[in-house]
Amino acid sequence: MSIFSYNGAAIVAMAGKECVAIGSDLRFGVQLQTISCDTPKVFKIHDKLYLGLSGLLTDAQTLHQKLMFRHNLYKLREERDMKPSTFGHMLSNALYERRFGPYFAAPVVAGLESDGTPFLCGMDTIGAIETAKDFMITGTSPESLYGMCESMWRPDMEPEELFETVAQCLMSGFDRDALAGWGAVIHVITKDKVISRTLKTRMD
Fold it and tell me: In which broad location class does this protein mainly occur, judging by the first location in its UniProt entry (predicted)?
């Protein structure tokens, strides 16, 4: 078994009309043994920026703490929050620094730029960055998630429609994956607020 599928995860980020949504499942397991179902893999950096981390959970938590440290230093020096595109490049740089002993985590960055434009990017363990205008996916169930997102995404969705689309894609995707699921949490980021909702899903 790959170290990336040791704990299991399913993360989807999707862009809408001046809004962006990111969601993850809530399962924490060790291979096929489920330990808890209240472990989100999406972390808040600030009100307009969220980070999803799949892979080995201990590495994901360590990476999140180091990124928060870097963001807080930036905020102290610059007296403003880091833009999502800037954060993506900083994250890419942080991963490339550790390329000979990498964190076993695959990140997805979702946020709104200062002009309200959605920003999505993902990368591998050594920081090779890839941006997207529609959606980004990471975790242990990419095939089913890609199929659902490609069939259901459309441009310029409003926040409520975007939430519903991400919810249906995420639930349909991880229902076909034994390593992910057991509930989900979704954050919809708009210009003036963040809507966070927890979903009850199949628990088998």
Answer: cytoplasm
